[in-house]
Specification:
mainly alpha; 2 domains; 7 helices
């Protein structure tokens, strides 16, 4: 029997069929003899009758545990490979999701964006058509009649919407929590 086989024999609960081989191995191997002796000592301790805990021990212990502050154990730093860190980065996940959506439903996205642009542009177009009428009557405002100006204002408006979105979200969240009675 080898040292590895003896450890397996101990892990299996010391079956009787291999006991003679294990005894023979422990006579020549000091480390395995120590393992068998420790296993037998543990077995004897488990077989002994245990004295019961003193009266009120559980209540006192639980009171001490409840009174003790629980500190969160700091997590050890994990050194992940660069490709795994990049894969779990929210920006990368969003970019991959957007790229897969474009590949999967590209034409539908293009049609939806065109529809949204037409809806937004329709409102702004009426504004710019009235601005163009004013610009025709006033040479100082002639620059407003350019279609490039309209596109620039639309892009600027979309940027302002993106900047204002977090503040709008926090406001709606506060109003919702206030309406629900929570703070």
């Amino acid at each position: 029997m080898s040292c590895l086989e003896l450890r397996r024999w101990l892990d299996q609960g010391r079956p009787e069929r291999d006991a003679a081989a294990a005894r023979a191995h422990t006579t020549s191997c000091v480390e395995c003899a120590a393992l068998v002796a420790a296993d037998q000592a543990i077995e004897r301790l488990l077989m002994e009758d245990l004295t019961p805990a003193p009266v009120g021990f559980t209540a006192r212990l639980m009171a001490r545990l409840e009174a003790a502050p629980i500190a969160a154990a700091p997590l050890p730093p994990v050194d992940l490979p660069w490709w795994l860190r990049a894969a779990v980065d929210p920006a990368a996940v969003l970019a991959l999701a957007l790229a897969s959506l474009v590949v999967w439903r590209g034409r539908w996205l293009w049609a939806s964006a065109a529809l949204a642009g037409n809806a937004l542009g329709g409102g702004l177009a009426s504004f710019f058509s009235s601005a163009a009428r004013v610009a025709r009557s006033s040479p100082a405002l002639d620059w407003l009649s350019s279609p490039d100006i309209g596109l620039g204002v639309e892009i600027g408006f979309l940027c302002l919407m993106l900047i204002a979105a977090p503040a709008l979200y926090r406001s709606v969240l506060r109003l919702t929590l206030r309406a629900a009675g929570a703070r």
